[in-house]
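Quick one: co-fold with pyridoxal-5'-phosphate.
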Amino acid sequence: MPGGIKIYHLKEIYKNMLNVKNQFPFFTNNPGITYMDSAATTQKPRIVLDKLVDFYTTHNANAGRSSYPIANQLTNEVEEVREKVGKFINASKKEEIIFTSGATDGFNKIAYTLGIHYLKDGDEVLYCPQDHKSFVLPWFKVQRLVENMGVAIRLVPFRVNKMGSIDRDDLFSKVTDKTKIINATHIHNIYGADSDINKIRDWLGDKDVIINVDAAQSVGHRLVDVQQLGADILSFSGHKMFAIQGVGATFITKKLHQFMEPIFVGGSNGVKLHDSEVEVTNFSQAYESGTQNYAGILTLGKAIEFIEQLGIENIYIHLSELTQYLLQKLRQLPKIEFVYGPNFWSCADGAGILSFKVGGLSASEAGFMLAENGILVRTGDHCISSRDEFTNTIRISMHVYNTTDDIDFLIKILKTICK
Ligand SMILES: Cc1ncc(COP(=O)(O)O)c(C=O)c1O
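Sure, here it is.
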């Protein structure tokens, strides 16, 4: 557990979480709403919104270009946020963090960069068809692109197990001496399961395989430590952890920097033209071509401050408790059919995500009935890459502002729907 974090008694956490809700203007402005779609995007605390307004009303400038005071101040603040993001996920250097427009942008940048500059003919990339489309589809585009350059990359699928985490036996059986990259989701967006990425790293030992992690549903939900996970690359979105939409970050371990080159280049302090070669002068900034979403980056810094004030371990406990409470209540209802996830694991863990079907109803019908009562949830295929029996589900996803009262209300409405 990270030092200095206070662990509250459970009751105290809930009391604290009630106060937390007051910090989100969305709930004050929508008193009748029970928001249970945080895996799609979280609501924003006042500290984040204030930063956004302050930036555009008082401090608006471009970073890394002009040299008057508010421009310099912005340049410095962006680098401070880079440092803060790095510390938050335990990167060893701030240069290992690149800002993106979100997880999808990060995954694409990584797939194109590695596909074009790192992979060789015959190399294999492992992926899970049950993962989010954003994490999977870029590899298929890159495969086609490099095929046109005479390079054949094999994309090798592996499964998840019934709990919803990576089936490590299946994964390990697919690893060959041609395997160069394993794409692993940390917390699954439908099943809510943790894939114990560190166990994959341990098994790989000193094999030269890059572990590329989708942490869109884990950063801001539980402690994410890139070194402890053994992640070489890890991407996430700010808007799923209280920052505004259109900002995110990707961690790239220092030891890979020498093998990578940015694909998209332009105005930034990270690249220059030298004898008709585009030369990288600053690794992280080289991946941030053009004017960035600086307002977004500043709100990402504030979102981290917000999370650190609550304590990431407290958030983890809160979400685990809510998940288990919801599971226990859902089990008492007729017609609920669980998909992979907390129903199939034995520990009191959870990321606030639980998916299920209501027998006899399509997910969108059930979702519509919930929305009529102010309960906002996600229904459908949840952007999964492969359609299977788990598409068309209802997904509940909770965060710091949810309480057991929200779950009790959801169960009350589901009872009428399940009749
Ligand atoms: C697991 C996972 N990966 C990737 C993404 C894509 O995130 P974004 O749309 O913010 O780029 C999501 C969003 O739902 C997700 O849940």
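If it helps, DSSP finds 14 helices and 15 strands in the chain.
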